[in-house]
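Subject — a protein and its fold
Fields — amino acid sequence, C-alpha cells
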Amino acid sequence: MQREYKEQRQHIIKKLGLLIKQARIEKTKSISLISDEVGLSKSIWADLERGQKDPQFTTLWRIAEALEIPLSQIIASLEEEIDKNLSFIEK
C-alpha cells in the first residue's frame, strides 16, 4: 500500500506541475517574475513545475493568485487529468 500511495502522490504532483507550467506560459510570465510574485526562489518554482515539490495549500493559493486564475480551476483541471479511480484511502 505504501508504494502505491507514493506512486499516486508523485503522479498527482507531476500533473500539478505541468498545469502550473502551462498556466504560467499562457500568462507569458517568466519563472523569475512569477517566483518573485509568489515569494519563492526560482529553483523551488522550477522544482514545482517539474513535479519535484508538493506545494502546501497556502502556497498553491498564492500560485493561483499570481497566475490570475481561481484555485478551484487548478483543482478542477487536476481532477480532469487524473484517473477517476485514484484514491489514497484503502477501501
User: Anything to note?
Assistant: The chain has one domain: 2-81. The domain at 2-81 is CATH 1.10.260.40 (434 Repressor (Amino-terminal Domain)).
